[in-house]
Amino acid sequence: MKQNLFYILAICFLYMSCEDVIDVDLDTAEPRLVIDASINWVKQTTGNEQFIRLTLTAPFFDDQVPAATGATVSIRDSNNNIFNFTEEGNSGIYKTNTFIPELNQVYTLNISYENEDYVATETLLPVVPIEFIEQKNDGGFSGDETEIKAFYTDPKDIENYYLFEFAHTETGDISLDVYDDEFTDGNQIFAFFSEEDLQAGETLLIRNSGISRRYFDYLNILLQQTDEDSGDPFQTQPATVRGNCINTSNASNFPFGYFRLSETTIFNYTIE
């Protein structure tokens, strides 16, 4: 018995002594500009205060995302009004308090960074309000999830695309989903959210934004590639997802990100 115990301990020690730390040597590409330019005009507000965030791509294992500082950022509308965005310190966050939102107006984003110019054009699209919320407490396959349905009525005979955001106020978690009206044109329909950790008294901030067909396609691909069931973080993605921002100085140094403008409706809901 003692001899068997000795062998077991020896084998355990052998396995422990053979553990090595493996350093993964990943290729590092030159940093690219990442443009987060989402202009949201919340219903019943002036919409004059807006911001744009510029960052740079970073190696996979880096803990921080570097800010793109020192850029010149502006938006011009089709009436030739120019809205200049000023950086807050060296944060990479550029703000304005003079923006004028107008539905179906065409806007052009201009960015100058590191002696290269970036341009994007998009239209500010309207959105219908969220009318009411339905809650089900025994949802999911095992009946332990809270299901939320946010109802809205799609305008008839108009091609519409929607971005829904469900933000859990207590945890800060945000769930995104996009919808179109291909099979629901002119009907009352709902956006769907399900979570097993929601508790009574907690709040959800639900946002619905009108988006373009191109942004719908762009975000739909991103959401599919970042889905939990799509593979581990080292899985090769099927394609590089390009937004609507173009480097007019050097096409090969294309940026990531997107410039979009939306009318947005917000619904604060308390879990029952």
Give a description of the structure.
This protein has 272 residues and is mostly beta strands. Helices cover 11% and strands 43% of the residues. It has two helices and 15 strands. A hairpin with a 7-residue loop joins strand 1 (33-42) and strand 2 (50-56). The longest helix is centred in the N-terminal third of the chain and has 16 residues, at 2-17. It is globular.
What key attributes describe this structure?
272 residues; mainly beta; 8-stranded mixed beta barrel; 3-stranded antiparallel beta sheet; globular
Query: Rough shape?
Result: globular
Radius of gyration: 24 Å
Helices and strands, in N-to-C order?
HEEEEEEEEEEEEEHEE
Number of helices: 2
Strand order of the largest sheet: 1-2-5-4-3-6-7-15
Largest sheet: 8 strands, mixed, barrel
Query: Which runs of at least 5 residues are low in confidence (pLDDT < 50)?
Result: 230-234
User: What do the pLDDT scores average to?
Assistant: 88
Q: What is the percentage of strand-forming residues?
A: 35-45%
Termini separation comes to 61 Å
Helix amount: 10-25%
Which structural class do you get from the secondary structure elements?
mainly beta
Say how many strands there are.
15
